[in-house]
Design a protein that fits this description.
Length: 420
Amino acid sequence: MDFDLPEDLRAYLRELDEFIDAEITPLEQAEDNIRFFDHRREDARTDWDRGGLPAADWEALLAESRRRADAAGHYRYAFPAEFGGRDGTNLGMAVIREHLAHRGLGLHCDLQNEHAIVANNVGLLLMLEYGSEEQKRHWVDGLAAGTKFFAFGITEPEHGSDATHMETTAVRDGDEWIINGAKTFNTGVHIAEADLIFARTAGRAGDGTGITAFLVPTDAPGFVVEEYLWTFNMPTDHARVSLTDVRVPHAAVFGQEGRGLGVVQHFFNENRIRQAASSLGAAQYCIDRAVAYAKERKPFGKPLAANQAIQFPLVELHTQCAMLRALIRQTAWTMDTHGTFAASEQVSMCNYWANRLCCEAADRAMQVHGGLGYSRHTPFEHIYRHHRRYRITEGAEEIQMRRVAGYLFGFMDRAAVKGV
């Protein structure tokens, strides 16, 4: 067994670092752009007069970094070559996402809003997999360039983690569908051309089939953004929306009618392994910063690093990072080799543990840094606030553990999922 990273991937990480140093860091430091990364002034990101939405100049800076990354051939790394990408793999994306997060917070990778110079644009991958030819013609180029977006309308106010008890419904009326319901935590809907709304079209509450995905224009009559939900970290782009007799053509169906949950699961598996890798990178960053500080700080005449009370918690976290890194890379390799759904159990393991580990690493880094760690002169409280949400979103850690338990205790069939 060969556990070495492919040389072309190692070379690409060096290429990325050179691009960041030459293009992205200077942009981050230009004029007063650093205000968005100065934790004492990070409210500059928030437009308090528009319900807490991201400020226009903050989103413009992100767009410029995406444009530069795209021009340099990095933004589309994960996409097929025919769409300007490099045919990136799940393993490659996991390694890259960890690498970017391990560099620390910055314009190269700001996970508060899922921004990175190598796009985690699962929307495009889903479009290529499930979109009709008409939908692809409309969406692919914009999605690939990062200039066109659609949001995901999955979660409902009364049914957070249980998508099968979806109350949003869609009823066929000739060549149209009429949609009624509500969705919450629709991230990015303020800049989205459409919202990918999941609605029950057949069957009963609790059924895994009978749910259909629709690309609903955000300017459709009856589609209303009711509010943006303020969160632990700001700004917010997480909307609660209502749909009242919203009409869409049959061409708005995304994927197969009644098979919408398959689209959701595909999205989750692709996104969760990459997000787990990001949490791992952020955790390792916190540990490395804490170790460096413990070597420098000398209370009572000796370095903090000489104390086992400082050493041992960081040793445990560092060990967990090493073990998690091996599992994430093995899981990503399995997805590349045997298909997206071949490692669903392992994806859940990686996801819930990485998110918890990042929170623990940020908390420990605060403790090692003492009062300074609790202040906004260090990045740890920001990292904690951001990554704490991942223990809830896209499947709470309890949902992930329940999924693993399903395989472990025989309630779910590994062979059936893996197709063997």
